[in-house]
Amino acid sequence: MSLISAIGLAVVALVLGIVLGRLSVKSRDASRLEQDLKKARQELVQYQGQISTHFADSAALMEQMAEQYQTLYRHMAEQSKSLAKDSENPFKALPEETGAEPVKEPDFPPRDYAGSSGLLKQSGQG
After folding, report:
1. Pfam families given for it (predicted)?
2. How would you classify residue 98: left for phi > 0, otherwise alpha for psi between -120 and 50, otherwise beta?
């Protein structure tokens, strides 16, 4: 009986070792996955910050460029008045200088000319 009990004890120990080993591997994998998730979230937050900074800087640069373009255009228009003949003057005054109202955007979206045929046809249309 001692041989049978020794074999039984060895089988129980083997099963117990396998179960404990699996549990420890799962906990290690879970902690590794949690760390990877935290790292990915931190990278996402950092990337979103970089995107926000990029667009803010780009908007500031575009505004500066527009102002510089208007300054250049005004300069060219003023100089062309004094240097070129009136009939040959290709530069016109900017709308804010002439008192004319700028072109107003329509209050409605553009029409979708797909109608009942074409790639943009909606399934509910005949």
Report:
1. ZapG-like (PF06295)
2. alpha
